[in-house]
């Protein structure tokens, strides 16, 4: 599926375009009371914003799906049979193909509780809450049963669009799970995030699963869903669905409107990293980070250095459009159509997690000659965050060394065992070295990359998802 909100690679990033889609929002600032909060404070604030929604009946879902989940050709948007950019094995017609009985794929579509109803003991109003209910193929929904979502490398059953059932390979749980196709992993993850926040403090009668305890996400499950949230970013489909449900239930999914909220609730130990450099003009650019940054201590122009003899920006505005993960830099005149390198130094999250110093490339609009970023790389010892991260099964890693000499880049598992040597040779001073890590034969989980050169060493964590 073509994504409209583009989450670019973490680490060293080349940014050439950004597409913006305006989302329908209530007239007042819907999330005003939640901005600049983190952890349980943010979770509670979001709960208070979206609670008390207008509850619809379970029978009414058949009608509401025709507004919330309709393809452009009028067919049912079933995430368990759809193949974005390809031809689905079958499509359903509203009302005509409504379940009913089923025995094989393509018989009919039903109303799936993506957060299974046994997890909340069939209670209301969550029983008919549209934000976790989707029209899906009856057979595939039956195979999914009430299993948690997860990553599957050796499926025992595969649907016609590639959704899989089998043993989980994501760290923290080894039971049976269901894995949808990549293009819809973020949709389902954000539906789970919504449920965990919407029913926070309202889950007294709920049960548990292997990934949840009432409305709480267990650590392994929160990590899995967050990796899906990053892998499959918000799409036009989700934005339109969010707006449609707002018209029905009078509440919204915060994690579609503000994807950055997820890290501030479930990844508070994660260091900030660069998501993108957006809308670079001759005088301004927006640095979008994966986490909120702390303006009270260390967000000022000295945290940023632009190459080509530009130096520090002239000003920094913290929290663009009330998103505290976005920083607006005012800069001296930049040349049209030119690639620049931005060093980001000494930042930390709003809850004091230190961000690794980072180098980012970005390009201003226009058609002027582009200077080689390799020639402009500052001569420093730096192992840059791999991109994409999380990854499956390949990722890119870049590094620089301050003086020409022997350099080694190796990968270790969390037991300290070496699993790959990506570079072992002479590296030139100030040149950006590109290597690719192919992890086809490795299991999913956390790994460490170590750069060694000139008596210095640097470690970086990277996450393989399968």
Provide an overview of this structure.
With about 475 residues, this protein is an alpha+beta fold. The chain has three domains: about 1-20 and about 270-375, Immunoglobulin-like (Sandwich); about 40-265, no CATH class; about 380-465, Macroglobulin (MG2) domain (Immunoglobulin-like, Sandwich), CATH 2.60.40.1930. Helix content is about 20%, strand content about 25%. The strands form seven sheets. It has a four-stranded antiparallel beta sheet, with no helix packed on it. Helix 4 (about 185-200) packs across helix 5. About 40% of the residues are buried. Residues about 1-25 and about 365-380 have low confidence and may be disordered.
Key features of this structure:
single chain; 466 residues; Immunoglobulin-like; 4-stranded antiparallel sheet; 18% helix
Topology of this protein?
Elements lengths: L38 H12 L10 H8 L40 E5 L19 E5 H7 L12 E2 L5 E4 L8 E4 L5 H14 L13 E2 L2 E2 L1 H13 L4 H14 L4 H4 L3 H6 L7 E5 L5 E6 L5 H4 L5 E3 L8 E6 L2 E8 L8 E6 L13 E6 L9 H4 L5 E2 L10 E7 L4 E9 L4 E10 L5 E6 L6 E9 L2 E9 L2
Antiparallel strand pairs: 1-2, 3-4, 4-5, 6-7, 8-9, 9-12, 10-13, 11-12, 13-14, 15-16, 16-19, 17-18, 17-20, 20-21
Helix pairs in contact: 4-5
């Amino acid at each position: 599926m073509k994504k409209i909100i583009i989450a670019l690679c973490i680490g060293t990033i080349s940014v050439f375009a950004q597409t913006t889609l305006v989302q329908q929002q209530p007239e007042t600032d819907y999330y005003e009371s939640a901005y600049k909060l983190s952890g349980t404070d943010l979770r509670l604030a979001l709960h208070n914003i979206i609670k008390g929604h207008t509850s619809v009946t379970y029978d009414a879902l058949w009608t509401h799906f025709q507004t919330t989940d309709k393809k452009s050709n009028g067919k049912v948007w079933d995430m368990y049979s759809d193949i974005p950019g390809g031809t689905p094995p079958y499509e359903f017609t509203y009302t005509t193909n409504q379940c009913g009985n089923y025995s094989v794929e393509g018989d009919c579509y039903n109303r799936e509780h993506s957060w299974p109803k046994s997890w909340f003991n069939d209670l209301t109003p969550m029983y008919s809450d549209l934000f976790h209910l989707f029209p899906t193929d009856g057979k595939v929904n039956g195979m999914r049963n009430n299993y948690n979502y997860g990553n599957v490398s050796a499926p025992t059953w595969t649907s016609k669009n590639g959704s899989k059932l089998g043993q989980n390979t994501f760290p923290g749980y080894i039971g049976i799970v269901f894995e949808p196709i990549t293009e819809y992993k973020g949709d389902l993850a954000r539906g789970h995030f919504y449920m965990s926040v919407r029913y926070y403090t309202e889950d007294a009668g709920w049960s548990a699963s292997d990934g949840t305890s009432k409305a709480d996400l267990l650590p392994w499950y929160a990590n899995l869903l967050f990796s899906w949230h990053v892998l499959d970013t918000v799409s036009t489909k989700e934005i339109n669905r969010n707006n449609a449900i707002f018209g029905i239930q009078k509440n919204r999914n915060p994690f579609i409107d503000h994807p950055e909220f997820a890290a501030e609730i479930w990844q508070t130990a994660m260091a900030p990293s660069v998501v993108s450099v957006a809308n670079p003009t001759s005088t301004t650019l927006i640095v979008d980070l994966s986490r909120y940054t702390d303006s009270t201590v260390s967000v000022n122009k000295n945290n940023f250095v632009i190459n080509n003899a530009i130096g520090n920006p002239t000003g920094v505005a913290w929290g663009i459009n009330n998103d505290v993960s976005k920083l607006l830099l005012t800069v001296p005149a930049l040349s049209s159509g030119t690639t620049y390198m931005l060093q980001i130094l000494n930042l930390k999250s709003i809850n004091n997690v230190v961000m690794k110093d980072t180098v980012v490339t970005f390009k201003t609009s226009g058609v002027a000659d582009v200077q080689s970023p390799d020639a402009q790389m500052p001569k420093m010892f730096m192992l840059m965050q791999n991109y994409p991260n999380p990854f499956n099964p390949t990722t890119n890693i870049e590094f620089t060394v301050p003086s020409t000499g022997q350099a080694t880049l190796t990968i270790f598992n969390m037991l300290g065992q070496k699993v790959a040597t990506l570079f072992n040779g002479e590296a030139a001073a100030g040149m950006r070295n590109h290597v690719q890590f192919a992890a086809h034969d490795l299991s999913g989980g956390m790994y460490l990359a170590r750069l060694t050169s000139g008596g210095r060493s640097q470690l970086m964590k990277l996450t393989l998802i399968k």
